[in-house]
Amino acid sequence: MAALSTSQMNLNSIDNSFEVDKLTYEIFSILENKFLFGYTDTENPKNSLPNQTQFLSKDAKQAKHATGKVRILCIDGAGYTDGILAAKSLAHLESCLKRKSGNPNAHVAGFFDAVAGSGVGGVLAALLFTRGKDGLPMFTADEALRFLINNRSRISRRSGILRRVLQSETKSEKLFRKTFGESTLKDTLKPVLIPCYDLVTRAPFVFSRADALETDGYDYKMRDVCAATSADPAVPIEMKSIDGKTKIMAVDGGIAMNNPTATAVTHVLNNKHEFPFCNGVSDLLVLSLGNGELDFNAVKSPSGFVRIAGEGASDMVDQAVSMAFGECRVNNYVRIQSNGVMANANKAKTAKTASDLLAVSEEMLAQKNVESVLFKGRKVVENTNLDKLELFGGELIKEQERRKTSILPTVVLKNASPSPRTSSATTLSTLSSNS
Asked: Where are the alpha helices (DSSP H) in 133-206?
């Protein structure tokens, strides 16, 4: 299945038969070929190993090029801006896509093939990729940004012991119920991955559209998914699948996967049903959005320290993914994050109005972009975060245009029939270009 199995992720179950996932394989392949055996030793060409594309026939190379690239969107947990930085980034990106495509009705969901979001990033992913009554995404990027700003306190506020004792519905749960109604994972437009942490199995659990289409035992209501991935670590949420057979005790997805990029990449590379021609990171276009780095000195609660730990893991994921992408990371992998803790970042904590929050996010987007460099840490580049978004938007447009004339499908999405809502009612829908 596409989601990470709790039994696979449980540390107690790891043994000698543990299989390294595709992303880890990519990383160690680069380490082995590039650094141990002189894979790209330009000074000593005789020592260099030939690129695998050298062995492909002309027709095979053309076919590989014709299949294009799978486009993945990944969104971090809350961070310093409670999700506003990522939402503002997507609003800018959607505006860019409308302008460059000439389509005033362009949506973010129409230009990505898969999305992964953790915590408030998972809420943002749900808003942008859940199907509305008109068949289009439920929210535009601007509407999703406004939603996070207007409901920031309800989504990010910690519930405290009263919620744990009374087991009453929180403000965030009421908000998600009103927003998503009876929609489930099956009602999303593209492959969606939203993690939480299951206290029962002591392991990550990933809500996955692909799994939901296989069985109702992995289909959940979107309102519950959003509540789970953003739940206070001190106040877990007990939830059940649509058929009631799968139960989890969920807390914030940022505990295990604050940066879900590695999860999304692994899912796509191993999901041959929906991404049949995607064989490596060179076949991907990945946009990873951070939400500003927390100020360690300002953290006073246990939940806050958990979030700090999650952000440290986010940086490690960024480094690992950059390593996996290698030389193609410049064009195929873009990470948008604040450039360190800003001197005036306290504005994010004291901001009460929409203009204050937007100003902080705009300042972060205007910063020079920071790239992870293989074995060299991180470096500041000339392009700003906004520049990077513009350039990436251009790549998305190119891929969209290429698919209009492509014979081979890049993505073959599995869709659920309207009724009955069971795994036997799934069909395959070929999407060589996305609307």
From this structure: 141-150, 152-156, 160-166, 171-180
